[in-house]
Write a structure and sequence with these properties.
This is Peptide synthetase. The chain is an alpha/beta fold. The chain has 38 helices and 38 strands. It has a seven-stranded mixed β-sheet, sandwiched between helices.
Amino acid sequence: MLSPTVLVDRLAVDKPNDVWAKTPATSFQGEAGWEDITFSLLKNAVDATSDFIVRKFGPGETEEVLAYMGINDIRYPFVILGALKAGYRTLSPSPRNSKEGNLALLKTTKCSKFLCSGEFFSHIAKLSTSMPSLQMLQIPTVDELLMPFTPASTTPKGRASYSDHETLIILHTSGTTGLPKPIHIKAGVFSTFETITSIPTPPGRTSTHCSLLLTRLVLSVTPFFHIFGINFLLRALHYQKPIVLLPADKPPTAELILECIVKTKPSALASAPSMIEDICRLPTGLSVLSTLDFVFYGGAPLAEACGNQISEVTSLYNGIGSTEAFFMPTLRLKDPKDWQYFEWNLEAGMVMEPTEENPNLAEAVIKRRPDGKYQFAFWNFPELQEWRTHDLFEEHPTKKGLWKFVGRLDDIIVLSNGEKVNPVAFEKIVDGHPWVQGALMLGAGHFQAGILIEPSKDHQGDDKEEFIDKIWPLIEEANAEYPAYARVWRSTIMLTKPEKPFKRASKGSMMRQATCKLYETEIEQLYKTQEMAVEESDAAGQSNEDVQELVRKTVRSVLGSRAARLTDDANIFQLGADSLQALQLSRILTSSRLKCNAKTVYDNPTVVQLAKAVSASKKDQSPENAVSREERMSAMIYRHSRFPKLVSPPSPPKSPPATFNVLLIGSTGSLGSYILKELLDTPDISQIFCLNRSVSARERQQKSFDDRGLGSISPSRVQYFTGETSAPNFGLEFPHDFASLQQQTDMIIINAWPVNFNSPLEAFEPVIAGTKQCADFSSGSPRKPHIVFISSVASILNWAAVRHIPEDGSEIIIGEDWDPDNSLPAKQGYGESKHVAASILSNALHAGHINSVAVLRVGQLAGAAEKSGVWNRQEWLPSLLKTSTATLHLPSSLPSPIDWVPTDLAARAVVDLSLSSYHRSTTTVQTFNLVNPHTVSWSFLVPGIQEFYSPTRNIKIIPYTDWVDELKRVSATATDEQIEQMPALKLLDFFEGLNKAPAASTGGEEGKQVDVRFATGHAVAKSKAMAGMGVINGRMMRKWMEEWGF
């Protein structure tokens, strides 16, 4: 085939002024908006790039590989084509790959040369520590490559042609099931692409891809390191139809896409579904999309509601493909309402093979046709006669030949809470036991994983408990490899019956769905009864020693593999217990006629404490030697406030530096991600050091940014460290990392804190100790970094109960002054822990140990107001609404006004207040109430909530007290399925507390309603985000409800 670089050279001669691409203007043009990159400019840039590569790396040897990673701008095409001209084949690793993934790609392709844009240089440099032979080079800017270039005698001219089986570029698989694997894209793929528009179609029908390839101008929101992006590079070359690119230095938000459409007037948009869904949520989204000839999406399903809306205003096309098979030719559908379906072009060789497990589902298989003229896959895999896509489809119920994508032929189990479990590794471990013939993991549609085991022939009919005892070590081994939500309890193990062996395929493999169908009744019964290993017993008349033994056995059973480290004084939550296990533990003890709910477990998280608590409940008394909460807080503050005496006066406050280096502790969560984004958007912030417990923080951070539409993270400004503040030297692997941080940091933002309103104060001691170590870190630093502590209004929520209540009934205002009173926090461990930590920092400040500290009391964080990102479904408000959709009852009011703060705006305020409070005081803790300055009543939002659910649910409005009473009634006999459908049951104590303790929310003694609000004047004066914050409104609520999807 003709070399792509020769094609560029010819187009530069034949059509020098024709537009190849429209890109955001740079200083090269010196004007705002978009600039046209003509074929003449493209040739100039390709020649300049190839010349640069040869001068720096030398000419490529036979199919030598050159890696490139950069921001998603037009340098990708420049490098792909320029490298080809220089004799190289470009490998394009995804910036989201792990270090191990990229190293594997480099080693597999024998690549030792890496070109990158400046944003990724430090990212690539870290690879060289594991690959010393790696040569790295930063590519010139777009401006420099577009400058007039005169080829020298050494400038490569490139080959004129390639055989169809030669590699031209290298992409890779996603690596979701292991390390990414390189896929060599052959020249035959390019030549097939060049002729694909001539593919035969039935009379009167057209191909979907013809619309995409031949339309006037496409706005492409696709990365060039992905096959989707390569599609548009080839389109612009072979069909001379230009593309529009987004600004690469800005997050690809829905708002930015709409702006680009308005300004560049493309005829089509090509994007991933998630971005299109974001566009649909914007007020002007559909009207702007209506100006397009069509919208094209691929890579995943599009939300049905969104697709239906778009199909009403413009054509909507659904594409499908893969790195291995490029794209799969389809026909344009006759009925626009069928936009979710595919109709295969027969020339593609697509055969739908029903699965053995479910004949209603079919796998798409590409079968080699005699000439293979329009089949991409077999250029990349010439040895194959068929390519199995592993994609599953369901045929339209009435229109034959139309197929809807329903999932992958992977064995993923989706639990009822949305968590996904890959059962294969677990099953293989259990299969390894000689008594086991087969193992099948359960849990689809249920809240907890289970396992169905087929005993070997010699052990069929064995006693169940003896059998489980024998295989239990392997169950525990498997559990240790899986997250908490995916672990198997002893009570969820089921054995097959001899007369009902596993269903197996002809080749001997287990047929998962068929076996589940065979045991459908037994599986449902298993989840209904939830038999426990600890039998029910009457403990009401037993001695305290017997009760402690019962508690000990019950805890061991519930903890499973984590019970190996259990002692009578060990905190079970620090051993890894979660809310589901706390609920399970309380149920077992309740079944033994002991008074115990989940809060009892949270308040008494050791065997000794829990045994005393439930023993006392038999006599309706309190445990002996109870210590007041104020005393417990005081003791912990004292324990962590032992600061050395000063040998010299404290350093005077410094003037703020020109730029700040910030240590952000806890960056991967919701608020942390938005804080990181705001820091990156702040010109005064130079370097950001992110300290997280996770070893994969970099990958989690980018995923969190992707989920929230926050764009890419500049690797030159962000460094990641794995550790935790409670450990010596923050637990960093290398001591010099700690020393380097201490030398460079100007400000510390402490954002990492367990959010568990049920845990007692003692459960938070590790992070409290970590706060003290942050003070020590600041004290030992030459820069004496300013400390910003993200606290909570829960740290002062008991203020109205212990302060004077106005006799005239006027409102109570909680100020923004620091108050060390230990009676002020809400009566729960979370608020107490925040107060204790802030008190330790206050003591450090007064001791001259640190120079300055700011405490930000954050109120209820809501979902994002302006950006993407789902408000955590496990929090109390989503739990309230999901429960209300199940009970069909919504509370008419809430005990306190709505002063929530959208998380993205809260992050903006955090950065504002962090910078404005920098070294402004050396004697007092600067305190800010970060709550919404404008409140609204819940009743104002209720009609919109009711209307949102009205198409499918008739939700009635009832008083809040009635709503809580209904929860209490259901809680007494709730099944696991009910708990999943009504998650507010897990927060019953919280909702009861809102109603019973108005002192924590509406002020005054119980039963006396007094309005309470938080002063925000100090915060508003120091933060533009706080000053401009608006009231929570119906539009925000609708956005959040749409994102929750229940």
